[in-house]
Amino acid sequence: MRSSLLLLSLLLPAVASAQTLTLGFVTTSTNTAASTTRTVGPADCGTNVSITWSVDTAQVCDNLVVWVQPFADNCPSDGTLPANRLTVFTRTPSQVASASPLSNVNGSQHGGTENIALDTLLTTVGTPTAVGSKNACGADVQETRLFRVCGFTKASSDLVGSCSSTKNITSTPSDLQIAYDHEKPAPPALTVKGQDGKLVVTIPDADDIATAQVEYRKETDTGFTPAGSHSPTKSFEISNLDNGVTYFVRATQTDLAGNVSDLSAEVAGTPVAVTDFYEAYQAAGGTETGGCGVAGGASLSTGAALAVLGLWVASRRRAS
C-alpha cells in the first residue's frame, strides 16, 4: 500500500500559551517512495485519500473547518472558504472536544482521520497541469495534480472562552502532488546466465518500475513456475535446476502507479555442471591420488594432463 504523511502546523494564540493544530495528507496506494509526489494509476481509483488532524481543544471556541484546495492558492487567513475547494469536515468545539484524545502534556490534544475518495478529489479540486479540465480517476490521461490542505478555527481571547475576531487560526500549507499514470510500462529486457544447478537472472533498471514478476519453465514443459517478485537492477537466482537442460524465463514488470506490462520475450538459459580439475583428471584416466611418488599404476602424460586442464578450464568458462 502506498502511504504518505505530510504535516502542517498552525499556531493557535491563547491566553496561557500557543496551541497547535496539525493537519496532514495520507494517501493509500502501492507506492512507497518517500516523496511529496505520489504516483497513482487505475488500480488506485477505488482507494481513499485521508486527512489526519489533531488540535489542542482547550482554547478552540469556533468551528474547525478543514478543506482541500488547489496548490496555487494560499490558505485564506480570515476563514473565508474558497469556491474551488473540497470541504473535508466541519466540527463544532464540542465535537472537537469529543474526538479521540491523543497523547499530550496537558491532556487536551484530540484528533482523528477523515477519508475522501481519490476520484472525488481529482474531479472536484483544481485543474490538471497537463490538460484543460478536471478528469476522473481512470481517465485515459497522463497528468499531475497539486493539492493543498487548509484548516481554520478561532482561539479563545480570555479564560472564559470568548472568541476573538483577531485570533484567527490559519494554516501553514500541507501539500501533496498526485501524478496520475494510466500507461503500462514496456516489458523488461531480461538477461539469463547458466551456472551449476541454477540460472542467474538480471532485470535492467528503470526509474518508474517498482517490481518485476518472474516465471520459468523447462523446454519440455508448457506451464510456467513462478520465481517471485524482484526489484530492478537486482540479479537473483533460480535454483534447484537440472544441469544440461534448457529453461525459458519471462517476466512482467509493475510501475509505481500499479500498471503491469505485457509479458517479456522468453529468454533461454542452461545450467552447466562445474567439474573440478581432479574430477576431470580421473575421467581422463588419471590414477594418482596425491603425494610425491608414482606407485605402480600408469599416469597421464604431460600432454594428456594439459588436455585435462584445458577441458577443466573450458567447463569453468561455460558455467561462468
Topology:
Layout: E1 2-12, E2 19-29, E3 37-40, E4 48-56, E5 64-70, E6 86-91, H1 93-97, E7 100-101, E8 109-117, H2 118-124, E9 143-156, E10 163-169, E11 174-180, E12 191-195, E13 198-202, E14 209-218, E15 225-230, E16 235-238, E17 247-255, E18 267-269, H3 277-283, H4 302-319
Parallel strand pairs: 3-11
Antiparallel strand pairs: 1-2, 2-4, 4-8, 5-6, 5-9, 7-8, 9-10, 9-11, 12-13, 13-16, 14-15, 14-17, 17-18
Question: Top keywords for this entry?
Answer:
6-stranded mixed beta sheet, 4 helices, about 325 residues, Immunoglobulin-like, elongated, 18 strands, 5-stranded antiparallel beta sheet, mainly beta, about 10% helix
Give a concise summary.
This protein is mainly β. The protein has 4 helices and 18 strands. It has helices at about 95, 120-125, 275-285, 300-320; strands at about 1-10, 20-30, 35-40, 50-55, 65-70, 85-90, 100, 110-115, 145-155, 165-170, 175-180, 190-195, 200, 210-220, 225-230, 235-240, 245-255, 265-270.
Overview of this structure, please?
- The chain is mostly beta strands and 320 residues long.
- The protein has 3 domains: 2-180, Immunoglobulin-like (Sandwich); 191-269, Immunoglobulins (Immunoglobulin-like, Sandwich); 277-319, no CATH class.
- 12% of the residues lie in helices and 40% in strands.
- It contains 4 helices and 18 strands.
- The strands form 4 sheets. Strands 3, 5, 6, 9, 10 and 11 form a 6-stranded mixed β-sheet that branches.
- The two termini are 39 Å apart.
- Mean pLDDT is 74; it is low at 1-19, 28-35 and 293-298.
Apparent shape:
elongated
Estimate the strand proportion. 35-45%
Question: What name does the CATH topology of the largest domain carry?
Answer: Immunoglobulin-like
Number of strands: 18
- Low-pLDDT runs: 1-19, 28-35, 293-298
Number of helices: 4
Gap between N and C termini: 39 Å
In CATH, what is the class of the largest domain? Answer: Mainly Beta
Secondary-structure element pattern, one letter each:
EEEEEEHEEHEEEEEEEEEEHH
Helical content class: 10-25%
